[in-house]
Design brief:
With 235 residues, this protein is mainly alpha-helical. The protein has one domain. The chain is built from ten helices and no strands.
């Protein structure tokens, strides 16, 4: 099964596709495609993110007072006229390493959780099914988000989660962070991932769904908790 067969299979025949991927793990081509897509996405949205960072800095009076006038002006000047390496680091290097961690760490955690339910399966299989499930979020999801960002000219105000239905909600609020975890493409990802986990660990679909969405739930709690902690220190 070549990459394009697996690509369309993720959307139109996930059960058989993930069974094949679990039985014969293959992920290098998928990982490369996902990396390229994410790098392109990050590069395109970088100017919008930069402008929003400038607006946040200008509107945050408390931050200005803490930094002091001189340091505040230095940071503002840096954001408004960044050096050439800034775009390279923040649109290429940073997203690259963050993406690689996002690729390799979750399957390791899923494997550890899977060991509570089964002695079957290995890391290579778990990595393979996780990367293929990520096609939904990283390719299709980012394509939709890119259209929204280019239309709205905003990264911070763009979401494909339940927060989409509350456009006036403050993006730094706890409510927004909670709703943002119910991202439609993330929920889709972890739903079809259950097909792969079921095949990897040789468990029934119900246990696989519990494992998949259990991981999503814990990941969401960690994100919300870190966001709340960051807000306390930031405030």
């Amino acid at each position: 099964m070549n990459f394009f067969d697996r690509l369309q299979g993720v959307f139109f025949n996930p059960k058989d596709t993930f069974k094949a991927v679990a039985e014969k793990p293959v992920f290098i081509d998928t990982m490369i495609v996902l990396l390229v897509v994410i790098m392109i996405f990050s590069f395109i949205i970088m100017p919008y993110a930069q402008q929003e960072q400038i607006q946040v800095l200008k509107s945050n009076v408390d931050l200005q007072e803490r930094l002091g006038e001189e340091r505040y002006q230095q940071q503002l000047e840096f954001l408004e006229n960044p050096p050439q390496w800034f775009f390279f680091v923040f649109s290429i290097i940073g997203p690259f390493f963050a993406t690689m961690v996002g690729f390799f760490l979750p399957p390791l955690i899923l494997l550890a959780f899977g060991r509570m339910l089964s002695t079957e399966g290995n890391y290579k299989q778990t990595l393979s099914v996780y990367l293929h499930a990520s096609i939904v979020h990283s390719i299709f999801g980012n394509a939709v988000r890119l259209v929204l960002i280019l239309t709205r000219k905003s990264v911070m105000q763009t979401t494909t989660s339940l927060a989409l239905f509350f456009p006036k909600m403050e993006v730094t609020s706890t409510s927004f962070r909670v709703l943002s975890q119910f991202d439609f493409f993330q929920l889709w990802l972890f739903g079809i991932l259950a097909f792969g986990l079921s095949s990897v660990f040789k468990i029934n679909k119900e246990k696989a769904l519990l494992l998949s969405y259990g991981f999503w739930f814990l990941k969401s709690l960690l994100y919300i908790g870190l966001g709340a902690l960051g807000s306390q220190f930031g405030g």
